[in-house]
Write a structure and sequence with these properties.
Mean pLDDT of chain A: 86
Strand order of the largest sheet of chain A: 1-2
Largest sheet of chain B: 3 strands, antiparallel
Distance between the termini of chain B: 30 Å
Shape of chain A: globular
Number of strands of chain A: 2
Largest sheet of chain A: 2 strands, antiparallel
Largest interface: A-B, 41 and 40 residues
Structural class of chain B: mainly alpha
Order of helices and strands of chain B: HHEEHHHHHHHHHHHHEEHHHHEHH
Oligomer: heterodimer
Strand content of chain B: under 5%
Chain lengths: 495, 530
């Protein structure tokens, strides 16, 4: 029941927010987001770290198609749920004034769409029926589309359309595979979309491969991976930073979440079959994303492209099929969410002050705004994997697993650390140090609201940097189950 | 000499047909005898009463109808076996009647254009002449449109229920002729409307000719017009398969023309654009439903045993329809033409369901059948289409309806509700989850894939991506583009159009969120009587 409440709460919040007077909309919206946060925490407290699907509920939805309204969380789902419920209130606070700025769609619309997006994302992370997952997976696109198209910089309508077309294309390709699963289950006796029913079916290898291709393309677009990443930078450039946090830190996780749950969970043989190609694509994403990021002049494009590199790491961790890699990948999903959210939000504050997103036109910020510069530096260092901050742990785990997989894979992956240091520190140097812009007003430091927004994220970065054990305790059972399903023992070799 | 035997008429089962036909005839009498100022009210009330009465009849018949002698289907063969009142017939009747009620409401709308309906004051007056101005000044109005529409509805009900080729032909003609007329009756842009009517009539007549020739050849093959006898002849392999093949091909031309499949789609954009928007709404929804009912009956009942010969053709036609429809829709600048090409693409998607036929013993328990999927898709498509065209009739400028897409820019700010409803219909047509269109697509793709038609399904998925682009483009124009000049204005509709739009949107939402009951209804409708 608690998961249903968790999904319904922001959905109701979105509807209420859409119809209350403008003056109240923000408070009401934030109230619903806070209530969802509390519900999420309660759900987490009721979760038993032992593993397996928990807090489950199942009702028949469309009988003649074998569709169920079935919710449940394992460790992976729980972490994604927590990431979502924590980030949404932060995004709402960050968009408190920005969304009301002239030319934007108004705070009421921003809060309502954000809550709608939260509801759909939570449903995605808790759905245990493939068709239910697909339905909410596609439904996330509608609020996302209006968030991109309604708020941000000029040219956002075009960016929103590009985003939607890419995502719909991926979704429709996946639909073919989803229907394929239906036919497989129908041929096996009774049609059903329940994950537990589908996992019990022994799907023949050729079918598995076809289904895998459909799922993987959709998740690769979502994640995003090279070569289907081109919507990413355009979107983060035009959208507000709050929207970018929602997209990159929450929605894109659906891609890697889906790879773990559907590709590895339902189609284990095909996943192993595809490993070489996927690993190469992941490596290309890692290196290419970092290289392209270095060359960017627009702060928001740059941050968007770093995520391409990070998602490469996550996918690599998933597809090297070892317990270290898998745990590292899931941990990376959490850490990337925190670190990138911090990066986007601080960049948003910075751009709000300078009035430009162009790195070339900034400079000398640290003299007048030391706190802003300091937070920006921490976010940048987190992105390039400084020990003591949480992304370091997950990055190391993935790289170690990559070396175990093949030395060459590890060697290429490790290059990315150097490149990350380059893009993060060089961006810091050009924007924060040196002389200020001639004739520009000095940049004002962060105010209390903004410090309040970034503080929880900073805290999480440091806390999980030194003490990732609580997260790993939740993650390890998932990795164990997944790898056992693929047919690989805990030590990394085939059983 | 053959003795003439008077067929027995099953009045109860045929009540829906008779009610519609009766009201149509009474409507003609009303035109002749009722005073001019009364006619509008009388005709609207009469039509609605007839349609509602027929709809009630459909429900009653559906509850009482017994299992047929063949044991597989429920229903009866009425009027000496020429009309099959079975599950699919009843489902389609109900659907056509519901859409027709919405159509009457749209026809009767007089609020949008300064107290006049969307129809020409006097069709006989040549456009641009004094006679036309006089007719407009006198507030003349053709109330014949209601009986015409009722005849078309009768045709739409007879067409899918016909159980032999001749009755099917009669249904086809009764359905088509009033629509040719109605197409030419637009009040504004009359030349365009008349051109559309002529085009529709000429091409429609050709396709009817094809149908009739095909019927003759099939008679030559089987020695009978009845579907059961043709089926028997196909099974027993009586010889003369050339006749069978050519006959099947020619019949397909006639039917595929009516559903607007490629390569017989050329009339759709012109007719959809030229016809008065209420007519377009009713015709686009109703004709497609009826024609697909007839198509399925012919191919499943009469030619089911021969499906290995016609399925490859259906594959090609389905793939072509999806791609040509979606690709050409992208290039359109007129919203009615865009919806017309999108309807061609939808024809392709529905054909994907039609070609997904499997024998009963090939279906797993509880697996969705081809008839069920197609019937459900028709329901989703019908309501979304009629709703979308009803919205189109609201967006206007001084010259009447504004159908140029770029003039819709800024509609999201000008009229958030109208824009939101239209966006919702577009999302339904694009097949986004939580709308009816998604479940429809899921159903037809599932049956096609289960029948092994995976190339068609892959093509359908790619075509869906192309189609999604065109719907998203319209949404972008409405919400994110800056208005050109003064921007569009939205006419405030009367309760008639508002009801139609609201019902269309509600059905589209409910069928998307809780499709179970209607899917079950389509499952209960079950099989055709063979």
């Amino acid at each position: 029941m608690i998961l249903t409440i968790l999904v319904l709460l922001p959905l109701v919040g979105a509807l209420v927010t859409a119809f209350v007077p403008d003056a109240l909309a923000r408070l009401v919206g934030l109230g619903f987001a806070a209530a969802t946060l509390v519900t999420g925490i309660v759900a987490a407290l009721r979760y038993d770290v032992g593993g397996g699907m928990q807090l489950t509920e199942t009702h028949t939805w469309i009988e003649s198609l074998g569709v169920h309204y079935a919710l449940g969380v394992d460790g992976l789902g729980l972490l994604m749920v927590l990431l979502t419920v924590v980030l949404v209130p932060i995004v709402l606070l960050a968009g408190w004034r920005e969304s009301d700025a002239p030319g934007n769609g108004g705070a009421r619309a921003f809060f309502a769409w954000t809550l709608a997006l939260e509801a759909m994302s939570l449903a995605v992370f808790t759905a245990t029926d493939v068709l239910l997952f697909y339905v909410v997976f596609e439904a996330t696109l509608i609020p996302a589309y209006f968030l991109i198209g309604g708020f941000g910089r000029a040219g956002r309508g075009r960016a929103a359309t590009k985003f939607l077309i890419y995502q719909l294309a991926g979704g429709l390709i996946m639909l073919a595979s989803v229907i394929g699963l239906y036919v497989v289950s129908a041929n096996a006796g009774s049609p059903s979309f329940l994950l537990s029913d589908l996992a019990a079916i022994d799907i023949d290898e050729t079918t598995q491969r076809w289904l895998f291709v459909g799922f993987f393309i959709a998740f690769a677009i979502k994640a995003p991976m090279f070569p289907v990443h081109t919507w990413l930078a355009d979107t983060t450039e035009k959208a507000t930073t709050g929207t970018s946090v929602l997209l990159v830190c929450i929605l894109d996780k659906i891609g890697t979440f889906g790879m773990l749950r559907f590709c590895l969970g339902l189609l284990p043989d095909a996943s192993q079959w595809a490993t070489p190609v996927v690993v190469v694509l992941a490596l290309v994403s890692i290196i290419y994303g970092a290289l392209v990021a270095i060359g960017q002049d627009d702060v928001l494009r740059l941050i968007g492209l770093t995520s391409l590199s990070h998602f490469g790491f996550i996918v690599l961790g998933i597809f090297v099929f070892s317990s270290t890699g898998g745990a590292g990948a899931i941990l990376y999903m959490v850490n990337h969410g925190i670190a990138t959210a911090l990066m986007f939000l601080v960049a948003g504050f910075l751009i709000h002050r300078t009035g430009t997103a162009s790195i070339r036109e900034m400079g000398g910020v640290e003299r007048t705004a030391p706190v802003l510069a300091g937070v920006f530096l921490v976010a940048g260092l987190a992105a390039c994997g400084l020990p003591g901050l949480s992304p370091f742990v997950s990055e190391m785990m993935v790289i170690i697993a990559a070396f175990d997989h093949h030395w060459a894979v590890g060697a290429v992956a490790v290059l990315a650390i150097v490149l990350a240091a380059f893009y993060a520190l060089w961006m810091y140097q050009r924007t924060m140090t040196g002389p200020g812009r001639v004739g520009a007003a000095p940049v004002v430091d962060l105010d209390r609201r903004e410090v309040g927004i970034v503080a929880p994220l900073l805290l999480a970065l440091v806390l999980f940097g030194f003490y990732p054990m609580p997260l790993l305790d939740v993650i390890n059972p998932v990795v164990h189950d997944t790898l056992a399903n693929v047919g690989i023992g805990q030590e990394g070799g085939p059983q | 000499m053959i003795e003439f035997v008077k067929p027995s008429i099953d009045y109860f089962e045929l009540w829906p047909l008779l009610a519609v036909f009766g009201v149509a005839c009474v409507g003609v009498v009303v035109e002749a005898f009722a005073p001019r100022e009364l006619r509008y009210r009388v005709q609207v009330v009469l039509s609605l009463a007839g349609l509602v009465g027929a709809l009630v009849g459909v429900v009653l018949v559906a509850q009482r109808v017994q299992t047929h002698d063949d044991g597989a289907a429920r229903g009866v063969l009425a009027v000496g076996g020429t009309i099959a009142v079975d599950g699919p017939s009843l489902f389609i009747w109900g659907l056509v009647l519901a859409l027709a009620i919405a159509g009457v409401l749209l026809f009767a709308e007089r609020h949008l254009d300064g107290g006049a309906s969307a129809f020409a004051g006097q069709a006989a007056a040549v456009p641009g002449t004094d006679a036309e101005s006089a007719a407009i000044a006198a507030h003349r109005e053709h109330t014949e449109i209601y009986p015409l529409m009722m005849f078309a509805v009768f045709g739409m009900m007879l067409f899918p229920a016909a159980n032999d080729l001749l009755t099917m032909f009669v249904g086809l003609e009764v359905l088509s002729l009033p629509l040719y007329l109605l197409t030419g009756l637009a009040r504004r842009r009359r030349l365009l409307s008349q051109e559309a009517a002529l085009k529709y009539f000429l091409l429609g007549s050709f396709s009817s000719g094809f149908f009739l020739y095909g019927a003759a050849l099939l008679y030559g093959f089987a020695g009978s017009m009845e579907f059961a006898a043709i089926n028997e002849a196909v099974r027993n392999d009586v010889g003369g398969s050339t006749l069978l093949l050519i006959g099947t091909g020619l019949l397909s031309v006639g039917l595929l023309f009516k559903v607007g499949a490629v390569p017989f789609q050329a009339w759709t954009p012109d007719v959809y654009q030229g016809a008065p928007t209420p007519v377009t709404a009713f015709m686009a929804a109703g004709t497609k439903v009826a024609a697909f009912g007839a198509l399925m009956r012919l191919f499943y009942v009469a030619l089911g045993a021969d499906r290995w010969s016609w399925q490859p053709m259906m594959w090609i036609v389905a793939i072509l329809s999806m791609f040509v429809g979606a690709a050409l829709a992208i290039t359109q600048t007129d919203i009615k033409r865009l919806l017309a090409y999108s309807s061609v693409a939808h024809t392709g998607f529905i054909l994907t369901g039609v070609l997904g036929i499997q024998a009963a013993d090939e279906l797993a328990g509880g697996e969705i059948s081809s008839v069920q999927a197609v019937l459900f898709y028709l329901a989703t498509y019908g309501f979304a289409t009629i709703g979308a065209f009803a919205v189109v009739s609201l967006v206007r400028d001084s010259g009447g309806e504004t159908t140029a897409i770029e003039r819709w820019a800024g509609l999201g700010k000008e009229s958030p509700v109208v824009a939101a409803v239209f966006a919702f219909f577009l999302l339904a047509m694009a097949g986004i989850p939580l709308t009816s269109g998604f479940v429809g697509k899921l159903a037809v793709f599932s049956v096609a894939l289960a029948a092994g038609a995976w190339p068609v399904v892959v093509a359908a998925v790619i075509a869906s991506i192309v189609a999604a682009f065109l719907y998203v483009r319209v949404i972008k124009v409405m919400y994110f583009d800056e208005p050109v000049g003064t921007g569009p204005s939205v006419a405030y509709p009367s309760v008639l159009t508002a009801t139609t739009i609201a019902v269309g949107a509600a059905v589209t939402l409910v069928l998307g969120v809780l499709p179970g009951p209607v899917l079950d209804l389509a499952a209960v409708a079950g099989e055709f009587i063979r």
